[in-house]
Design a protein that fits this description.
The protein has about 325 residues and is an alpha/beta fold. The protein has one domain: Metal-dependent hydrolases (TIM Barrel). Strand 4 and strand 5 form a beta hairpin. Helix 3 runs parallel beside helix 4, helix 5 packs parallel to helix 6 and helix 6 packs across helix 7. It is globular and about 50 Å long. The two termini are about 30 Å apart. About 45% of the residues are buried.
Length: about 325
């Protein structure tokens, strides 16, 4: 089934169309465990845009929303603002569950946001999110990515090791919720320390640990891979950690690809293959899940092409391994029915 989708959102408008590709293994069930919904910087990605991607050729049976500071409440107590996002996503999920827009269970589960640096009071907020979600709240992401030489997502380094943060984190274990970790590769040891301290709490490492390939790291990419692999190897020893596969750079400086065209699934698979396959080898397919990271990824490739790239990377996997990578792991970890 050939697909042709327009390049849209906060993107380079000179790229008028995405590459057209036949869908690989169109019947393979997919649960997309990582996408956003938002209106920001002139980029609208809400239910119509999500549905256009979900029904662009692959067999997407369900999705998991990932927090992105969308539709936060204005006014009121700052720590309660993120309840607005949960209420918003619950509304989108209810629309999807009606069957009016097709069979895919969009936002069947959601990963929200609660500030765990609140300490013990964070548990009460977690409970409120669970209620506001209509039973769809699977866990939270508290982004702690921090590097002194590049972008700092977190307000300070070492949050995962902070005693007050961990008091808030303890509420996840008590409520059976998942923790999504977004860190950069030099912080992987902090995730391992957290996993050891709370062995009953499931941790999902976002974006294969976000290896830093630009800035001051650009001249030592081989060393980055070595350091990243060592960190991932140590992290894989903790059975309560799973990994999302995706959201890496496709074209780095010095590449020879034709930059007048968006990348094909073959190019994406070649760029991402070493990182994703190494993660699968270390953690096993039953602890890995492919992620679209849409609409962020939409800047570079269409939904159809992105999932074709994942299918190319998994081409040598068994049927059971493919089932885990494309749907089974996400279903088990996030509780997708």
């Amino acid at each position: 089934m050939a697909q042709n989708s327009r390049f849209s959102g906060a993107v380079n408008d000179a790229w008028l169309a995405q590459l057209t590709e036949e869908i690989i293994e169109p019947d393979l069930p997919i649960i997309d465990p990582h996408h956003h919904l938002w209106v920001r910087d002139g980029n609208t990605y809400l239910l119509p845009e999500l549905l256009a991607d979900v029904y662009s050729g692959h067999n997407v049976v369900a999705t998991v929303f990932e927090e992105c500071h969308s539709m936060y409440r204005r006014g009121g107590r700052p720590e309660e603002a993120s309840l607005g996002e949960t209420e918003f996503v619950a509304w989108i999920a209810a629309m999807g569950a009606s069957g009016t827009f097709g069979n895919a269970a969009v936002c069947a589960r959601m990963v929200g946001n609660v500030d765990l640096t609140l300490g013990d009071p964070a548990r009460g907020l977690l409970e409120r999110h669970m209620i506001a979600s209509g039973g769809r709240f699977a866990g939270i992401r508290h982004s702690t990515a921090w590097d002194a030489d590049i972008h700092k997502v977190a307000p300070r380094p070492g949050l995962l090791l902070d005693a007050t943060f961990r008091k808030g984190y303890a509420g996840l274990d008590a409520l059976g919720l998942v923790f999504d970790a977004w860190v950069y590769h030099p912080q992987l040891s902090e995730v391992a320390d957290l996993a050891a301290a709370f062995p009953r709490t499931q941790i999902v490492l976002n974006h294969v640990g976000s290896p830093i390939l630009g800035g001051p790291y650009a001249s030592r990419r081989d060393q980055v891979f070595t350091d990243w692999k060592a960190g991932m190897t140590a992290l894989s020893r903790h059975p309560n950690v799973t990994v999302k596969l995706g959201a890496l750079p496709i074209r780095l400086p010095g590449g020879t690809a034709n930059r007048d065209l968006p990348p094909s699934s073959m190019e994406i698979a070649a760029a991402w293959g070493p990182w994703l396959q190494t993660s699968i080898d270390l953690f096993g397919a039953d602890r890995c899940m492919f992620e679209s990271n849409f609409p962020v990824q939409k800047r570079w490739s269409s939904f159809a092409v992105t999932w074709n790239a994942f299918k190319r990377i998994a081409a040598g996997a068994s049927a059971a391994e493919k089932s885990a990578l494309f749907s089974g792991t996400a279903a088990r970890i996030y509780g997708v029915n």
